[in-house]
Design brief:
By secondary structure, the protein is an alpha+beta fold. It contains 27 helices and 32 strands. The strands form 7 sheets. Strands 1, 2, 3, 4, 5, 6, 7, 8 and 9 form a 9-stranded mixed sheet that branches.
Length: about 850
């Protein structure tokens, strides 16, 4: 048996099954597509479920893949054992109604004995207890009969609820007696570590029915799964995934960064090394697939992995804020050949990790300080359980992950009250719900009366005016009524696009439509309050004329078409990770939310504007087509993630530049957008940015408003508009010069009062303690003053407070001779600042803190005296 590297095994598996007529598919994204049952892809067959279910047609009836997978169910055990991990690769070969049991096992035997050259006497198999066919196939292939073990349904029958299911056969490798339990009947199925399962062949041949019975499937399928890392352990003769070539390469880099050696130091060091190594692999692959750190869903999984790895780096003694970003290169070194997207997105991946490390560093410093205070109080009271409301406060107020609180408490022999934590969480949600606006008045009181109607025929893609028949008239809320017609040109609010408004003419009467809502394909046309009072004459069956406000529609369509160009331009400038996270378009402006990890620079904003305007000037034709969803995907049409689409979709393309799934209204040419201008860019949630923009005539209005501001500013500064920058810079420089003069005067004043300040010292326990409040003084001046005092005298400790516009800065300074006696400015200021509602820290000689309550400064000074007295 050869010692094969992980990458070699992956290539051999693919080449073997390609030689057997299999299509080699690329690994799917870790983000499930059109599958809301999964948060993250966790098995080789998960992305292929539509093929097994017959919903989609596979590229071939025979496929082989190596699928990236993440499993987080055992995340708390990762590191504590040498076998748990969150990221792994699953090799698999699949048949969709083509070959079945005999061919699958035959090829399995050929691959492991001829291509991997495993000793046949060390290969075992388990089969379902009633599966004589699988048993006989193994015997026919040459496996000794005493190496075939029959097991029951729990071990060798695969089913999840109703639907396709079937028996399976697992292949094991005998690691030898030294790993066994010593029992004479030890074999696969035993709980000891002698036999390691590495390849499962699932034979989907039945369908489980609602009555519990099993029927034969018309088309039988094969689904196999081989853990790549586990197979590498076998081929390389190692006991742990952390010892195989590629993963050990990463672990060694982590150990070198920490200045420690794996399995040659403390158990805690080994645990932390394994955690950082495993989590590095997961975060690199997750980010490359477009997952960004956030506070929910798969984004929270990523955030938790990064933060857990960062903290364990600190435990290892790594004193570098961006060490994970740097070590990400090691993951890409060993996996970039098989997954070129890692190399393509290398700098982006590192930027995301670096950004999250930086944020966590701030969160951790604050949270750890507070948690340490909590633990000190617990120790003083002899308590082992942290109150649930305190754990929740750490989580809710300071952003400190509850899992991290659990880990740190556990390391100190303590636990949080998780039931209390969950109750605090529930209380907060209930409070939030109670504060929401009561919308019961807006419920559709007559909803049941029109639910039988057919879907409204929408004409708005091509028509702005139409004849229609009234099908229903009902009450929308206390003041307004609504009308339903058999057909309509009015667009109902959806997909981020605002509804149309317009007029309904019924005989001599006209009714103003102010809102249009769609429910299950039925369009409700809401009439304004004044007209609703005069609608008694409208009856079902009446013929009416519907006419939308064309100017408003044109302005909305202009903005909507611009959002399509905007999305593609953002991807061009920022990267392919950019995906729509929400949008809104009305007649006045547009906004577009997208996944991105940091604020756009001014240069990036200008580039996006230039790209959009360039494609406007190209007068690209805008085409709208309905087609089967598979055809649309082949065109490369972008879909809104999480949106459910039918078999037939509408695709909007703008030349060859932008192709998207979209049900909204658009222009017929990009040139009609006129112009595009971004007016704002800001964050709306973790990992989500928002762009606001205007188009066409709104750009002129925006620029006119800017010009008016410039004109007013020029008038106030008594200069021409062209000279405004120069005049503003001159004023700023004048202001800086004046500030320097004031600081110099203040410094002279302070220097002149050093002797007086020293004379005001109070003798406390043989120490000269100086406490003093200063108004309109900054931190630099306080530090300069303390340094000057320490030059003039020794055996001195100072606590100074600067109060400026309600903001308080505290400085604690201790002379070197006192530091040598054990006095510590950082410890002193921590307690002093707490009295005034603040916090901070620092070194033994000098420390700084912020505070909130100026009325408590005298109490804070008294606390300093108390601390010095008991030193």
């Amino acid at each position: 048996m050869e010692n094969l590297g992980l990458n070699e095994i992956r290539d051999l598996f693919r080449d073997f099954f390609v030689s057997k007529g299999h299509y080699a598919g690329k690994s799917a994204s870790l983000i499930p597509q059109n599958d809301k049952s999964l948060l993250i892809i966790n098995s080789g067959m998960a992305p292929l479920k539509p093929y097994f279910a017959g919903v989609e047609t596979p590229p071939s009836k025979r496929m082989t893949t190596c699928q990236k997978c993440i499993r987080t169910g055992d995340i708390d055990n990762v590191g504590k054992t040498a076998r748990h991990g969150t990221f792994f690769e699953m090799l698999g070969n699949f048949s969709f109604g083509d070959y079945f049991k005999e061919q699958s096992l035959t090829w399995g035997w050929e691959f492991i004995t001829e291509w991997l050259k495993m000793p046949k006497d060390r290969v075992w198999a388990t089969v379902y207890q009633d599966d004589d066919e699988a048993h006989d196939i193994w015997v026919k292939l040459g496996m000794p009969e005493d190496h075939i073990v029959r097991l029951g349904k729990d071990d060798n029958f695969w089913e999840i609820g109703l639907g396709p299911c079937g028996p399976c056969s697992e292949i094991f490798f005998d690691r030898g007696e030294k790993y066994g339990c010593g029992k004479p009947d030890c074999k696969p199925g035993c709980d000891c570590d002698r036999y390691i399962e590495f390849w499962n062949h699932v034979f989907s041949q039945f369908s489980k029915e609602e009555d519990g019975s099993y029927s034969d499937l018309a088309h039988k399928n094969i689904d196999t799964g081989m853990g790549l890392e586990r197979m590498a352990c076998i081929m390389q003769g190692v006991d742990s995934i952390f010892d195989i070539d590629t993963i050990r390469h990463i672990l060694n880099a982590v150990a070198e960064k920490a200045g420690v050696k794996y399995e040659q130091g403390s158990e805690q060091n080994d645990i932390s090394l394994r955690i950082v190594t495993d989590h590095l692999r997961s975060m690199v692959f997750m980010i490359s697939d477009g997952i960004l750190p956030s506070n929910e869903g798969r984004g929270y999984v990523l955030r938790r992995l990064i933060r857990r790895a960062a903290r364990n780096g600190m435990i290892l003694g790594i004193d570098q804020d961006d060490f994970l970003a740097e070590l990400a290169d090691k993951v890409i070194e060993v996996s970039g050949g098989a997954y070129p997207e890692l190399v393509e997105k290398q700098e982006y991946i590192k930027k995301i990790i670096r950004n999250e490390e930086s944020q966590f560093s701030k969160t951790l410093a604050n949270g750890l300080s507070i948690l340490n205070d909590y633990m000190s109080d617990m120790d003083a009271k002899g308590e082992k359980v942290l109150a649930g409301e305190l754990a929740f406060k750490l989580y809710d107020t300071y952003g400190f992950p509850i899992e991290l609180t659990e880990e740190i408490l556990a390391e100190n022999g303590k636990t949080p009250d998780m039931e209390g934590f969950r109750q605090s969480m529930a209380n907060q949600k209930e409070t939030a719900r109670a504060g929401q606006r009561d919308t019961s008045d807006e419920a559709w009181k007559d909803a049941g009366a029109y639910s039988h109607l057919p879907a409204t025929e929408f004409l708005g893609y091509t028509e702005t005016e139409a004849e229609a028949e009234v099908q229903f008239c009902g009450s929308y809320d206390r003041e307004r009524k609504f009308l339903i017609f058999n057909r309509t040109p009015f667009y109902a609010t959806s997909g981020g696009q605002l509804h149309d408004t317009g007029i309904v003419t019924a005989g001599e009467a006209k009714y103003h439509i102010v809102d249009v809502v769609k429910e299950n394909g039925i369009f409700l046309h809401v009439v304004d309050a004044d007209d609703s009072k005069k609608m008694d004459a409208v009856s079902e069956g009446d013929r009416v004329t519907l006419k939308i406000d064309s100017v408003k529609r044109n302005r909305i369509s202009r903005g909507h078409s611009a959002t399509h160009l905007l999305q593609q331009a953002l991807r061009d400038v920022l990267g392919d990770h950019v995906m729509q996270a929400g949008s809104y378009v009305d007649e006045n402006y547009l906004r577009f939310d997208f996944n991105h990890f940091e604020a756009m620079t001014g240069e990036e904003i200008r580039k996006v504007e230039d790209i959009v305007n360039a494609h406007i000037d190209e007068f690209l034709p805008i085409q709208m087509q309905e087609m089967p969803i598979e055809e649309a995907k082949k065109m490369g049409a972008m879909a809104l993630f999480g949106e459910k689409y039918g078999d037939i979709v509408r695709v909007v393309s703008m030349g060859d530049y932008s192709v998207e799934f979209c049900g909204g209204t658009h222009l017929d040419n990009t040139g009609k957008i006129g112009a595009f201008k971004i007016t704002a860019e800001y964050g709306v949630a973790s990992g989500v940015r928002r762009v606001e923009a205007v188009t066409g005539s709104q750009v002129i209005q925006y620029l006119d408003a800017k010009a008016a501001i410039l004109e007013e500013a020029a008038s106030v500064l008594k200069t021409g508009e062209k000279d405004l920058p120069k005049r503003a810079e001159q004023l700023l420089q004048d202001n800086r010069d004046l500030e320097k003069e004031l600081k110099a005067l203040k410094a002279d004043q302070i220097a002149g009062s050093v002797d007086a300040i020293i004379a005001s010292a109070k003798d406390v326990n043989g120490v000269k303690l100086i406490t003093k409040r200063f108004d309109d003084t900054d931190a630099d001046q306080l530090r300069e003053m303390s340094d000057a005092i320490k030059e003039h005298t020794d055996n001195v400790a100072m606590v100074f407070a600067a109060v400026n516009d309600g903001k308080i800065i505290l400085i604690t300074s201790v002379s070197e001779d006192l530091v040598s006696k054990g006095y510590h400015a950082g410890k002193i200021i921590k307690e002093v600042a707490k009295v005034a509602g603040g916090g901070g820290g620092g070194k033994a000689g000098m420390a700084q803190a912020g505070a909130k309550d100026a009325s408590k400064l005298e109490d804070a000074f008294a606390k300093a005296e108390e601390l010095i007295a008991v030193q």
